[in-house]
Each structure stands twice: as structure tokens, then as C-alpha cells.
Amino acid sequence: MPSYRPGSTAMELDTKLAQLGRAPSMHAGMVNVPIYRGSTILASTLEEWEARKQDGNPMANYGRFGSPLSRALEEAFCELEGGYGSTLFPSGLSACTHALLGLLRSGDHLLLTDNVYGPTRTFAEQVLKRLKIEVEYFDPADLAGFRARLTERTRVVYLESPGSLTFEVQDVPALAQAAHEVGAFVVLDNTWSTPLYFRSFAHGVDVSIHAATKYIVGHSDALLGIATANERAWPLLQSSAHHFGEIAGPDDIFLALRGMRTLSVRMRRHWETGVQLAQAINAHPAVAAVLHPALPGNPGHELWKRDFLGASGLFGVALKPMTQAQLSCLFGSFKLFGIGLSWGGFESLALRVDPRPNWRAGENVESGPLLRIHAGLEGTQDLIADMTRALDGALDAGEGDRSVCVEQAGDSMPNAGKMRTHYGYR
Ligand SMILES: *Cc1c(COP(=O)(O)O)cnc(C)c1O
After folding, report:
1. Structure pTM?
2. Architecture per CATH, 263-422
3. Which residues line the pocket of ligand 1, CB cutoff 6 A?
4. pLDDT in tens, 108-143
């Protein structure tokens, strides 16, 4: 069978992004793999049908076990990550939860980083505990404390670096080495970095997870998850995906493959704009601290320089204490930043987030509300101006000058609600 993986692993990652996951000779010369829809896959003879059965999976020739399109993305992504096998899931969260379910057995001990993505934490609390898995959290900055929690029952150590909301960078190689000493699997949610900026398998990770919804798809128009395993973890990950019947939709897979082609150019821009925006925000009097590992002086900066190859456009901002009215004024002043969940698309976003109970990066800062900012692909100076005006507005509102805020908030399209009226949907 012609392969979706060009042979050379020495190729630069940028070249791989253009080359991987395509095989025009298999698809009438089409430069991209077309969208394959379907459930059943027909054989022309009974003998052919019998021959397609695989050990342990007599139904292997069925849409639930993949199509040329899903295999194209899986093989491309696996090569990009440097893993042994990749499997797709219908959302990023689904990739996180099924990786955990594949690796854990009842009676096992799971150690999760304290700054893990909120819904993964909720899953551990609500589902894994019910399955008699012992769930414990560790402070990602305290290596000695982490070691003290490892036992021979520790089956999985779950990392996320930088962590959701507070962006602490973890010493992944050191954590992985300690975890492997007790025989545990190391799982990393690598969404922030993409495969371009953090090389999971070179740093000791066994399963690397991406919410492809974010930068891989890159255009905020699909949900998808991808988990990639090394040889040791692959059979468990693969069987978890199969037994739960998880299958991603073909349109979403197609959009992820298309997004992948431009990942490198988009990421460079998110990185650059994000750093410039973070620096501008850092200098503003309404701000207590900016939580961005690429900024010198950030607690995670040295580890980031050692282990990462770049930064994404997502970071945190700890504001100085302010009233709800000031915060409303800040958000009401945005003309470019959308107010909403998710990130990794072309568009800039801002959201107030609540990091409890895991507020570490900001614990030494006298801080008010925490914001999460995504720097999109708009013009950097426009974004800086929009953010500066919003922060100014919050300060002015604190001085009792509410007119500034009301006037700004009344301007056109600060958020999606107003966009909708513009298009006549309401
Ligand atoms: C968004 C996100 C997820 C979940 O992805 P969905 O596709 O929204 O389910 C998982 N981990 C991290 C770090 C995320 O930011």
C-alpha cells in the first residue's frame, strides 16, 4: 500500500507539514486526500473479505476503524510528533479522557498536575474516582513533593506544560524520569505548544495529546483530538479508542489536515504577536503580572528556553484588584478581542478565568481578576491598541469616570452578540 509517510525522518518539520498525509497516486492525482464518507467497506469476493480480517479485530474493515482520510492524518501527525502510533478522537477532551481510561485499571494511582485543564480534572474527579482509581494532584514546580507522591501503584502521571490558566512550565524530563522509575506512564497535554514547539517523545513522554480544535485546525471551525503514543503505550491507547467506538467526523479530519499545512507560519505569527502584546500589557498600570513563559523574568522562562522551540499565542494576565464595574468596562471596550472559550484560531480572544484551587504562578502577586488572552492573527499594533484602550477604560472607570466606558462599550461589534444582530440573526 502506498504510504502517507514520506520515508525520511531527517526532513525539516516545515517540509513535513507540506508533504505528510498526502498520496496523490492513491486518489486520482488529487493533491489532497478527498473526504471519505461511509460506514461499510465492501469486498468484491468472500475470499477478499475473509483475508482482510485482522488478529484480534475481525471487523477491521469497517468505517469505525478508519478510512484513507483518517489514516492520512494519523500517520502524518504521528510522524510529526515522532511517536509510534496516533489515533483521532471527536474532541480534545475525548483524547484526554480515553488516553486515561486506556492506561488505568481500578486500584491504580493517578497523579495529575495541579494546573491541569479543568474538564480533565472534573473527569478524574467524577468518573475515575467512581472506577476506584485513586486520584491525586501535585504541584508542578515542586519536584521533591512530586517524588514523594509516587508509589509502585502509580500507573499514570499526567502533565500539562505550560499548565492551563496559570502557565507554569514543568520540568518534563525530570518528572518523566522519576515517573518511569516506578514504571508509570507519562501523559502530556501538549496542546499549547503543538508538535512544532515541544517535542514530547524526546522529553520522555509516553502519550502526547493535542486538542487539534486549537492550533492544528487553526480556524475555529472544527473540534478534534489527537493522541500519539510510543511503542510501549500504543496497544493500550489504540484499544481504548476502539473499544469505546470513538470516531471523528470526516469533515473535521479534513479541516485538521488542511490546517496542518499552514501550522508553522501561523504559529510563528501567534508567537511574535503574543510576546509583543504581553510586553505591552506588562507595562500597563492596571496589570499586576503577565503569565507568559517566553517573557524574561517569568518563573518558567529558563525551562521554556531549555526545552521549548517556540511559544504559542496564549497567556495569562493578572490584573491589579479592581471592581466588577471596572472589569465590565474593560470587556465592554474591546473591539477586536472576542469574549469566549477555546483559542488557537485566527481570532483574538479574552476571557476572565478562575484558576482556583491552583493559583501558583500568581501567588506572590497582589492580584485581582485573572484573564486568559489569545493573540490571533490580526495586526499586532491594532491588538495592542485595543487592549490598551480597554485597560485604560478600566482605570478610568475606577476614577469614577464612567462616561469613558459607556461611550466605548456603545461602539460597534465588541463581541459576538452584536455581530449576530449585524447579520440579522436574533
Ligand atoms: C481546549 C483544550 C482541551 C479540550 O479540547 P476540546 O477540543 O475543546 O475538547 C484539552 N486540553 C487543553 C489544554 C485545551 O486547551
Report:
1. 0.92
2. Alpha-Beta Complex (3.90)
3. 91-93, 96, 117, 160, 164, 189, 191, 211, 213-214, 223, 225, 342
4. 999 999 999 999 999 999 999 999 999 999 998 899
